[in-house]
């Protein structure tokens, strides 16, 4: 199925592997998913299938093909469009084949359908309940045209629809070949046995772990409808015998933008976060018999319709995943990992006025790699796909430039982006671009962690803030992490960094020779080596990459930091902010040394956010320092 989609899709987004496939049984339970599927679709495809089968109960026929993107029916967000095909043998429904693809646009006021100003899903794009697009083998042109003509680049949307439908047909064909070869009873038994096997395997591994309850929290930067301060995603995990239960009822109410999650999205985060610590267990509905979750409606992790949720994967979703990483890091410390960078999307759209394009509509849809958290005994992965979609490819810059009037001006690893630790986080990436000939064009951005910055564990420190800087006519403006439909024109430039992962362990325990190697690789600067790691480096010949560790000065520096770092986190935030605005301190000084968070565009102190951030640092870092 994956080969079929990747070879025939029209969308550059889907081509870069933002898709998933699965085989469901006749009740909608997942029998197996693709081995390279992205994490956010894990745990949702069986809900979508069950809802669709219930919707068409009594009217499910050979040759039918369904389409749905409804996030409130077990889905994720409206860009994730699922195509389903019921499979029959001798008139009996035996399975459903399903393909999910992220469509680059599904309508709405903002190109890419990421509208930060949306107060409800009506302002985001086209919400599709279960519909038939093939009825007993007959293509419903009227339905398909109604959908795609309400989306930008309609031809691409139609092409993606057909590519996904063909993938479900290929799966049907292969499944029926197995039925012909082995008999339907054998294949149906294999369906059941595969789910039972996963259940047994998971139960055995959970049973071998200690019973208990573990609790942590992660945060979304803010609720735009309330005063500044973190939005809490609260996760409590209980192991009881051979089962795992997650309780997220302590999470805050849903917020006033699209970073909320639906039930399906948050359950996906629970499953994907858990699966990271059990890589040898295959994935199907057998796991859902062992892992359960309480996701109260009305919270940021289970927003009801019509609350907007298109940005959920950059909001509540990854907060749930990273919180679960921390909980399992306590249970299975040999697999421990600190927080990973936040998923982010930059979208642009308008009319392409380059020679030969004649004002053709374009949609530029980009995500970046970044750093994963430091691990027990190993640094984090650098420039890696986000945890929400570990199978995603980094998009080809040449392909993007051919398709859209945007030129990539920079794509590089960001020095000092990795959270310091005994084992540092992986490094983030900076990507910049310039707008070429275009008309009626806008840009939008969806991310988080400009304030709830990627955190470390076991004494490790945070990464760097996310956010976009937009330059027009020589004037640069920090745009933050969420905005939509900002007008752009030829010559405008933008740049945005992704954070590195959080650090693992006390940075003052890192081997100075490892810090030296990081400097040679441009992962860490000489200045931050001294400030974050207490490692003093003598620069012999930077052009030839020749440096040495000053051992005596390093010991003195580390003693100095140990004696003072707790007091630094108690300094008056207003005084710290003033020193920053006067140029005495830089952003990483505020974040890693003083625990002070500002509105990075204005320099204004965020008092409540600073209090929240310091409390987080106290729990994850200070409590582990010697």
Record field, number of beta strands: 24
Query: How are the strands of the largest sheet arranged?
Result: 2-1-5-4-3-6-7
Measured as a percent range, the helix fraction is 25-40%
What general form does the structure show?
A: globular
Number of contiguous helices: 16
Low-confidence stretches are none
Estimate the strand proportion: 15-25%
Look at the structure and give the mean pLDDT. 96
Main beta sheet: 7 strands, antiparallel
Q: How many angstroms does the end-to-end distance come to?
A: 53 Å
Secondary-structure-based class equals: alpha+beta
Oligomeric state: single chain
Backbone CA Rg: 25 Å
Protein name: Hydantoinase B/oxoprolinase family protein
Organism: Haladaptatus pallidirubidus
Domain Hydantoinase B/oxoprolinase: 1-507
GO biological process, one term: glutathione metabolic process
Summarize this entry quickly:
The protein has helices at residues 2-8, 12-15, 45-55, 141-148, 154-182, 184-207, 263-275, 285-288, 316-331, 397-403, 512-520, 526-533, 551-568, 573-581, 587-594, 607-620; strands at 19-25, 30-33, 65-68, 80-89, 92-102, 131-135, 138-139, 212-220, 231-240, 243-247, 291-294, 345-352, 360-367, 406-413, 429-435, 438-446, 468-472, 475-480, 482-488, 493-497, 537-541, 546-549, 598-599, 604-605. It has 626 residues and is of the alpha+beta class.
């Amino acid at each position: 199925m994956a080969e079929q989609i990747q070879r025939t899709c029209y969308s550059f987004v889907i081509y870069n592997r933002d898709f998933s496939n699965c085989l469901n049984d006749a009740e909608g339970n997942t029998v197996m998913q693709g081995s390279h599927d992205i994490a956010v679709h894990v745990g949702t495809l069986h809900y979508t299938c069950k809802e669709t089968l219930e919707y068409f109960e009594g009217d499910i026929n050979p040759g039918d093909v369904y389409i749905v993107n409804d996030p409130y029916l077990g889905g994720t967000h409206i860009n994730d469009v699922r195509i389903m095909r019921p499979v029959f043998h001798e008139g009996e429904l035996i399975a459903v084949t399903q393909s999910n693809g992220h469509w680059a646009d599904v309508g709405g006021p903002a190109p890419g359908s990421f509208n930060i100003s949306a107060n409800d899903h009506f302002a985001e794009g086209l919400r599709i309940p279960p519909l038939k697009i093939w009825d007993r083998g007959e293509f419903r042109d009227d339905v398909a045209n109604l959908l795609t003509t309400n989306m930008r680049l309609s031809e691409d949307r139609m092409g993606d629809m057909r590519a996904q439908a063909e993938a479900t047909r290929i799966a049907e064909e292969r499944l029926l070949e197995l039925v012909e070869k082995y008999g339907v009873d054998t294949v149906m038994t294999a369906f059941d046995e595969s789910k039972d096997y996963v259940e047994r395997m998971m139960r055995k591994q959970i049973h071998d772990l200690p019973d208990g309850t573990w609790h942590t929290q992660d945060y979304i930067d803010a609720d735009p409808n309330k005063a500044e301060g973190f939005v809490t995603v609260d996760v409590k995990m209980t192991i009881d015998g051979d089962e795992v239960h997650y309780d997220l009822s302590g999470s805050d109410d849903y917020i006033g933008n699209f970073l909320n999650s639906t039930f399906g999205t948050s359950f996906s985060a629970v499953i994907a976060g858990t699966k990271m610590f059990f890589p040898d267990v295959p994935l199907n509905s057998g796991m859902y018999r062992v892992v359960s979750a309480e996701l109260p409606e009305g919270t940021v992790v289970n927003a009801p319709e019509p609350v907007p949720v298109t940005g959920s994967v950059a909001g509540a979703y990854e907060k749930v995943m990273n919180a679960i990483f921390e909980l399992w890091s306590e249970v299975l410390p040999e697999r421990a990992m600190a927080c990973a960078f936040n998923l982010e999307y930059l979208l642009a759209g308008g009319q392409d006025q380059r020679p030969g394009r004649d004002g053709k509509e374009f949609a530029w849809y980009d995500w970046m790699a970044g750093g994963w958290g430091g691990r027990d005994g190993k640094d984090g992965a650098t420039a890696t796909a986000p945890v929400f979609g570990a199978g995603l490819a980094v998009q080809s810059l040449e392909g993007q430039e051919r398709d859209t009037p945007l030129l990539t001006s920079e794509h590089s690893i960001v020095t000092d982006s990795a959270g310091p630790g005994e084992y540092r986080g992986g490094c983030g990436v900076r990507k910049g671009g310039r707008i070429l000939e275009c008309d009626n064009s806008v840009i939008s951005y969806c991310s988080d962690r400009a304030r709830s910055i990627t955190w470390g564990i076991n004494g490790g420190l945070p990464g760097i803030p996310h956010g976009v800087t937009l330059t027009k006519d020589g004037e640069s403006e920090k745009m933050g992490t969420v905005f939509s439909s900002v007008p752009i024109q030829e010559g405008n430039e933008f740049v945005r960094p992704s954070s590195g992962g959080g650090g693992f362990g006390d940075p003052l325990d890192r081997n100075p020779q490892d810090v030296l190697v990081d400097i040679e690789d441009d992962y860490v600067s000489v200045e931050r080596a001294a400030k974050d790691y207490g490692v003093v480096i003598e620069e012999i010949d930077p052009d030839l990459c020749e440096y040495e560790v000053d051992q005596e000065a390093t010991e003195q520096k580390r003693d100095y930091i140990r004696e003072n770092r707790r007091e630094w986190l108690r300094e008056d935030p207003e005084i710290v902010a003033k020193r920053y605005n006067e140029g005495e301190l830089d952003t990483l000084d505020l974040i890693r040394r003083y625990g002070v968070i500002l509105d990075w565009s204005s320099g204004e102190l965020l008092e409540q956010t600073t209090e929240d951030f310091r409390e987080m640092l106290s729990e994850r870092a200070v409590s582990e320092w010697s």
